[in-house]
Amino acid sequence: MNNNTLLKIANDFGSPVYVYDSEKIVSQYKRLTSAFNKVKQLKVNYAVKALSNISILKLMKNLGAGLDTVSIQEVQLGLKAGFSAEQIIFTPNGVSLEEIEEASKLGVQINIDNLSILEQFGTKHPKVPVCIRINPHVMAGGNANISVGHIDSKFGISVHQIPHILRIVENTGMHINGIHMHTGSDILDIDVFLYASEILFDTAKHFKDLDFLDFGSGFKVPYSKGDIETNIEEFGTKLTKRFNEFCKEYGKELTLGFEPGKFLVSESGVFLAKVNAVKQTTSTVFAQIDSGFNHLIRPMLYGSQHVITNISNPKGRERFYSVVGYICETDTFANNRRINEITEGDILGFQNAGAYCYSMASNYNSRFRPAEVLWHKDKALLIRERETFEDIIKNQIEVTL
Ligand SMILES: Cc1ncc(COP(=O)(O)O)c(C=O)c1O
C-alpha cells in the first residue's frame, strides 16, 4: 500500500482507520508454511485474539489455516467465519468449567492448562480427547506482560506436575491427544524455542496416544527497516529435523502445530490518524492526533515502538515530535520521534498495526472505535464500520432516579 492509497482510504473512510494489506498476510502465511515444508503434517492455527475481524478469519480459512481461540466468543466467531469445529483449538486460561464444556459441545479441540479443571473435565467427559498446555518454565518474551512460560506465570501446568497429570489421566480414563506450550511473544532467539521444544518432547514421551504437538508462537517481527526478527527459516530447518526424529522415536507421525498471531498480521496493518493540533511547549513539540490509547494501547501497555510516518508529507524535512492522543491522561504514542514535518490536518501512519491493536481497542472516554479496511486485490474493502453514538448507548439502561 503506497502513501496515495493510504491517503485516499483516510479520505474515503475518515480517520482514524485501521488498514490491512491482505497480500502481506498471505506472504507471511506462505513464509511460515514453507519454512516447515519438510514436516509431513503441519497445522497453523491463527491466534484470533491478534485481529479478530471475521473477514480476516475468512482470509485465514482460504489460506488453509485453523484457529487458536481463547474465549467461547472467539470459537463462535470462528464457526461463523466458516471454520469447522475440528479446525479450532480452544486454549483458554482461567475460564470456568462451564465455558470449556460449552466449547467442547461445539466440537472444538479442548486445551486445558489447569490440574483442577483437567480432573473435573476428565471425570465428567472421559471420552473427549484433550490437549494439555504445559508451562516449560522458560523465561522468554519481549516484555514482562507477554512472557508467559516462566515459573511465576499463571499459564500452563508445570512440567514438574507431570506425575499429577498422569494420575488424573489414569483415574479418569481420559485421552490426552496433544501437548501444547506457548512461552511468550516477541521471542527473538530461536535457541529459546529449541530449548523449550526439548521440554515439550520430554513431556510428550509420557503420553502414549498423542496426535499432535503444538509449539505455540511468539515469533518476533521487525518493527522498522533493519530491525531484528525471528529467523523463521533457520528455526524451520532446525525444529523440523528434531521433530521428525522425535516422531520416529515416538513411533507415530504426529502433527506439528503453531498458533501465530503477530507473525501473520502485525506487519499487514497501518493505523491512520489525523493531526488535530501541533502544540509547542517549553520542552517539546506535540503532535496531537484524533485518537488515543483507546484505539492503540500497545505503546502505553508494552512500551511498543510503532514507526510513525507522515503520510501527507513524506518528503518534508525531518523534525522531532512527541506524538500523543486525546485521552485525558498520559497518552503517548512516541516521544522525541523524528518525523517529516507535521502540519495540522496531516495523516500519520502507525506501522505494525495489524496485531493486538484493533482487538484491544475500547470506548474509553466514550469514543467510537475506528473503522477497519482490508486492502485486497487493489481494492479498499470496508470490513468494519466506525462506531456511532448508537453503539455507545445501546446497552445502557436509563433508570429513573
Ligand atoms: C496461547 C497463545 N498462543 C498464541 C499466541 C499468539 O502469539 P503471537 O501473537 O506472539 O504470535 C498467544 C498470544 O498471546 C497466546 O497466548
Automatic annotation (TrEMBL):
PROSITE patterns: ODR_DC_2_1
Coiled coil: none
Keyword Lyase: yes
Residues recorded with modification N6-(pyridoxal phosphate)lysine: 49
Catalytic class of the enzyme: lyase
Active-site annotation: 328 (proton donor)
Residues the entry annotates as binding substrate: 298, 302, 329, 356
Residues the record lists as binding pyridoxal 5'-phosphate: 218, 356
Domain Orn/DAP/Arg decarboxylase 2 N-terminal: 24-266
SUPFAM superfamilies (alphabetical): Alanine racemase C-terminal domain-like (SSF50621), PLP-binding barrel (SSF51419)
EC numbers, comma separated: 4.1.1.20
The keyword Plastid belongs to this UniProt entry's keyword annotation: no
Keyword line: Amino-acid biosynthesis, Decarboxylase, Lyase, Lysine biosynthesis, Pyridoxal phosphate
Domain Orn/DAP/Arg decarboxylase 2 C-terminal: 18-354
InterPro entries per record: Ala_racemase/Decarboxylase_C (IPR009006), DAP_deCOOHase_LysA (IPR002986), De-COase2_C (IPR022643), De-COase2_N (IPR022644), De-COase2_pyr-phos_BS (IPR022653), Orn/DAP/Arg_de-COase (IPR000183), PLP-binding_barrel (IPR029066)
One Pfam family matching this protein: Orn_Arg_deC_N
Needed cofactors: pyridoxal 5'-phosphate
Molecular-function GO term, any one: diaminopimelate decarboxylase activity
GO biological process, alphabetically ordered: lysine biosynthetic process via diaminopimelate
Subunit structure: Homodimer.
Function of the protein: Specifically catalyzes the decarboxylation of meso-diaminopimelate (meso-DAP) to L-lysine.
Name the record gives this protein: Diaminopimelate decarboxylase
